[in-house]
Amino acid sequence: MKEQRARQAASVDLVGYLVEKACASGGDAADAVRIESTSLGVSWRLGKPEDVARSEDHDIGLRVIIGHKQAFVSSNDPRREALDELVERAVAMARSAPEDRFCGLADPALLAREWPDLDLADDDWPSTEALVETARETEEAMLAVDGVSNSEGASASYGEGLIALATSTGFRGAYGSTSHSIGASAIAGSGTAMETDYDYASVRHRADLGSPTAIGRSAGERAVRRLNPRKVKSGPRPVVFDPRVSGSMLGHFAGAISGSAIARGTSFLRDRMGEQVFADGITVRDDPRRPRGLRSKPFDGEGVAAEALDLIVDGRLTTWLLDSTSGRQLDLVSNGRAARGTASPPGPSATNLYMAAGSRPPAELIAEIDDGFYVTSLIGFGVNGITGDYSRGAAGFWIEKGEIAFPVSELTIAGNLKDMFRHMEPADDLEFRYGTNAPTLRIDGMTIAGT
């Protein structure tokens, strides 16, 4: 941890130097970001190591603003002479850039002055040998499942990252994070009757990772359950989304309430602020300060204080996802949702997005369905963000008389997100496993295309 803090301090000094140099060289305003990442991963297949890979990235980005013109330059060279050249190029480019009346840094009044420790990093760096052993154990458990005939491999990895940001309006900050993950993909059956499925886990702290054996066994069992899928007839049916895929609904929602999309008029929710968008009782929250969250951050990409937002309250839409630019375009202010890289302007994005749990267990939602579809896998990207039209390939299990009956595949589910949101019921099984999380979801009246 001491070494991490020293690296953060050094990175803050570096981006601070860039900002000061840019303003001294003719820029009216500037901000700079440094993003570092290191990863180590191994893969194991059919009883032997298949791959060991390590990568390191160190990127620096500088934005310079002159009047209503801005320019971006990036580099991976931290030497002082290279940084000075970076500043020179950025200032020259900003002078020649086209006018953008909405560009600019965040309002200084919104900047984070202090922030809590979100516990995003640990100091438990696993050795290559430990990762190999984890991957081996994961695949071994997967292959031990009766019915598993082959392996697409198991993996284990570790990553460490650092983000430092400085602005000419006085912000200086940095934070580090770590990630640990394991995964496995199994093949069941043989010949033309083979099926595949997977499972994985990703966490900030290694102590939260759980059992490799459990992940491997789950991957194998999921693949076996998909054997011998049947065909079903087309028609309108209730559809239940497993938690592995239910979060995709929130992904579509987040895209629709992005301030950039609203400002462009390219969202099916562009005129729905304050209106009923989801069913009564539904709450959707974005929480960037959840301890150990996979997308947690103490401040956003512009240095704005990042606080939890209830985007949907009792089914009603309460706000957009805003950075400073989209806020200016909509005559609003940033709500701390700016995300950025090193070579492009910040843009609005969700963090730890989730739908609050409902009151009924999944079994109760399923028990009421005589004929329906339980989705465990989605294929393709057939979603129109302007109209809300939704059509995606899907696989999973058929529901008969209130029970999971048999596997199905090669289906298409279709509807319109405006109607789907209004007819959605969440179960009570919310777990925080991913960056975007939702419980089991039931949506009545969707169209299923089968035979």
TrEMBL record:
Q: Which GO terms describe its molecular function?
A: metallopeptidase activity
Occurrences of domain Metalloprotease TldD/E N-terminal (ranges): 30-94
Q: Which GO terms describe its biological process?
A: proteolysis
SUPFAM superfamilies to which the protein is assigned, alphabetical: Putative modulator of DNA gyrase, PmbA/TldD
Can you quote a single GO CC term?
cytosol
Ranges for domain Metalloprotease TldD/E central: 126-227
Pfam families the UniProt entry points to: PmbA_TldD_1st, PmbA_TldD_2nd, PmbA_TldD_3rd
The coiled-coil regions, if any, are none
Please report the stretch or stretches of sequence annotated as the Metalloprotease TldD/E C-terminal domain: 235-450
Q: Which family does it belong to?
A: Belongs to the peptidase U62 family.
Q: Under which name does UniProt file this protein? A: Peptidase PmbA
